[in-house]
Design a protein that fits this description.
mainly beta; Jelly Rolls; seven-stranded mixed β-sheet; 1 helix; 7 strands; 52% strand; globular
């Protein structure tokens, strides 16, 4: 519950809403200036997935091996938050998700760019 509260405060502080994302998913080579937020677009533009269908969010960091980012994966209905995950430059992480709409929050004080996509 505490993680969800922290996420809500972070998103509120950045002025984000569930209908307005800073970056859509998929996004490629997006620079992270302290915080970057990514969100899936409305389901009306997507295939209707079976609720048991599993997908994965793939996050790739492009930067020096000394670059570090913290990644949170959250459902847009704010019922679930996964992480924090540590992402190092040149590394890729994969997080299994369900058929709901999801978002990714990336925080870093280092110069790093990220790719975020769903498979």
């Amino acid at each position: 519950m505490r993680k969800i509260l922290i996420l809500i405060v972070l998103l509120s502080g950045m002025g984000m809403t569930s209908v307005s994302a800073q970056n859509p998913i998929p996004s490629y080579n997006v620079p992270v200036y302290h915080v970057a937020n990514f969100q899936e677009q409305s389901k009306s533009n997507k295939v209707n997935y079976n609720s048991r269908y599993k997908r994965a969010i793939i996050i790739t960091a492009n930067g020096a091996p000394s670059s570090i980012a913290t990644v949170y994966v959250y459902s847009l209905d704010l019922q679930d938050m996964l992480g924090p995950f540590t992402l190092v430059g040149g590394e890729t992480i994969s997080v299994e998700i369900d058929s709901r709409d999801w978002g990714v929050l990336v925080e870093s004080d280092d110069h790093i760019t990220v790719d975020v996509r769903i498979e």
